[in-house]
């Protein structure tokens, strides 16, 4: 794995990103902008599950409205995340924060498209307020911890 | 350096001498965590603003009347704004000299100011006609403009925020 990370960082495209003074910066900037959109789409559904959102609509309606922005921003996050990884692969690979971030990302993606999806798209009233609230808080907690680990890679991890 | 800028620069230099500013600057762990909380509160703020803007543009959350989108998101937007302002001030307080001559920092401040004016203009002008289009599928031009301007300006704020540290190498004095 370590050798793979070194090899990836040696790809011409990785080195080009690393050596450019602005490609990496712009990629980071759009990664952060996508994160804001992602946070918005996630919060619309989670706030609704917490009983604090658009309460005139069923949660399923809010979730369907948020879906294109959720999926679009996840795609944008991955597309802007990959160039950052390949240009710094050995350092990222060694970073505890990066490893946590990837693990939590896997967990939150599975969680979002199974448990949270099941609860959000269920007929109104199928799940009680307590269950919905826990599902929302776990979602917020997971996404926030990914953002926190992501920010910390730059400070302590690399 | 332009003459009108001198007092501003003096102010930032004055803050930099405060013991609290020095302590922040020299702390190993406090500053990174302030950055973390700044990012988290920014996401909550920009996220809830952008989703509201999509509704204004007529391309998101169209089953929910605008007034409800606005009313439900407002407390979160305000709480997140307070939190990101507080953490943002702390970041500048700890490293004033990194910001005072940073052109991207001033671009960000200007964009935030204009975004505030845009929000107030919408509130005091376009929102008076809200009753006509609240639940409608095609918001009027004024509402769409307010949403589009908001997306551009807040997008600019987020991007400028991330690019700020690079200004130190991109633009030398």
Structure, briefly:
The complex is a heterodimer of chains A (158) and B (173). Chain A is an all-alpha fold and 158 residues long.
In total, how many beta strands of chain A? 0
- Sheet-strand content of chain B, in percent, reads under 5%
Structural class of chain A, please? Answer: mainly alpha
Uncertain residue ranges of chain A: none
The percent range for helix content of chain A is over 70%
pLDDT < 50 stretches of chain B: none
**Number of distinct helices of chain B:** 8
Can you put this structure into words, describing what you see?
The complex is a heterodimer of chains A (158) and B (173). Chain A has helices at 2-10, 12-19, 23-49, 59-87, 89-94, 96-120, 129-157. Chain A starts with a helix and ends with a helix. In chain A, α3 runs antiparallel to α7 (129-157). Chain A is built from 7 helices and no strands. Chain A is elongated. Chain A has 158 residues and is mostly helical. Chain A has one domain. Chain B has one domain. Chain B has 173 residues and is an all-alpha fold. The model of chain B has no long low-confidence stretch (mean pLDDT 94). Chain B has 8 helices and no strands.
């Amino acid at each position: 794995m370590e050798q793979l990370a070194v090899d990836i960082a040696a790809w011409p495209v990785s080195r080009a990103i690393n050596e450019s003074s602005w490609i990496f910066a712009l990629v980071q900037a759009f990664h952060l902008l996508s994160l804001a959109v992602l946070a918005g789409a996630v919060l619309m559904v989670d706030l609704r599950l917490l009983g604090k959102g658009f309460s005139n609509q069923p949660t399923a309606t809010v979730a369907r409205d948020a879906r294109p922005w959720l999926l679009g921003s996840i795609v944008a996050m991955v597309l802007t995340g990959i160039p950052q990884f390949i240009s710094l692969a050995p350092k990222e690979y060694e970073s505890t924060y990066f490893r946590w971030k990837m693990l939590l990302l896997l967990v939150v993606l599975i969680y979002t498209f199974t448990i949270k999806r099941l609860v959000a798209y269920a007929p109104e009233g199928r799940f009680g307020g307590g269950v919905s609230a826990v599902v929302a808080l776990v979602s917020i907690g997971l996404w926030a911890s990914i953002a926190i680990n992501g920010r910390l890679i730059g400070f302590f991890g690399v | 350096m332009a003459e009108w800028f001198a007092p501003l620069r003096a102010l930032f230099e004055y803050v930099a001498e405060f013991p609290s500013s020095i302590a922040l600057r020299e702390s190993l762990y406090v500053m990174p965590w302030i950055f973390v909380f700044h990012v988290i509160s920014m996401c909550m703020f920009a996220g809830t603003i952008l989703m509201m803007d999509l509704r204004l543009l007529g391309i998101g959350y169209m089953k929910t009347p605008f007034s409800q989108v606005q009313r439900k998101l407002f407390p979160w937007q305000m709480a997140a704004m307070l939190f990101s302002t507080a953490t943002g001030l702390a970041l500048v307080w700890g490293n004033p000299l990194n910001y005072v001559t940073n052109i991207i920092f001033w671009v960000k401040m200007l964009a935030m100011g204009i975004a505030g004016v845009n929000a107030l203009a919408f509130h005091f002008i376009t929102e008076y006609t809200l009753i006509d289009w609240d639940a409608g599928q095609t918001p009027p031009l004024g509402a769409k403009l307010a949403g589009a301007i908001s997306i551009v300006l807040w997008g600019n704020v987020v991007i400028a925020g991330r690019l700020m540290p690079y200004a130190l190498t991109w633009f030398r004095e």
